[in-house]
Amino acid sequence: MLAGNFYTVTVQSQEPGQVTTTIELNAAHAIFQGHFPEQPVVPGVCMMQTITELLETALEKKVALKKATQMKFLQMIDPVKQPLVDVTVTYKEDEAGWKVNATLKRDDKTFMKFQGIFN
User: Fold this and answer.
1) Is 30 within a domain?
2) Average pLDDT score over residue span 20-44
3) Which domain, by its residues, includes 29?
4) pLDDT for 74-95, tens place per residue?
5) How many domains does the chain divide into?
6) Does residue 80 belong to any structural domain of this protein?
């Protein structure tokens, strides 16, 4: 889990089918020593894990990514320059699993867009 170490939740609201969260990234986390020294960038896998963890919190159960139909990394996140990130996760259950749309953004900067299915 990345929550509580890599990032902390500063604000969260939830309504049926959607969770909206502001996270604060820990720029001192060890992952940034390798990704990348002197120019930290949040790895894409960490963005996906954050989405997964926020979905699990909303559903109150473990989930696994079944299929990513869209995963667009639009801008890099430097945790020093951009410590706060807004994450919106919308979800709906159907016969295929949990259909999820998510965005990571802050103000006018969109860092990532995701669409996929979790089981």
Assistant:
1) yes
2) 95
3) 7-118
4) 999 999 999 999 999 999 999 9
5) 1
6) yes
Q: Rounded distance, CA 65 to CA 42, Å? A: 20
111 CB-near residues (< 8 Å, 6+ apart): 42, 47, 73, 74, 75, 76, 77, 85, 104, 105
Q: Tell me, what DSSP letter sits at residue 76? A: -
Is position 78 within any domain?
A: yes
Structure tokens at 108: 């006018």
Q: Give the CATH number, domain containing residue 31.
A: 3.10.129.10
CA distance to 4, 38, 40, 63, 107, per residue, from 34 (Å): 20, 9, 8, 28, 28
* Within a domain: 82: yes
Angle at 85 between CA 107 and CA 73, to 5 degrees: 90
* Whether this model's pTM surpasses 0.90: yes
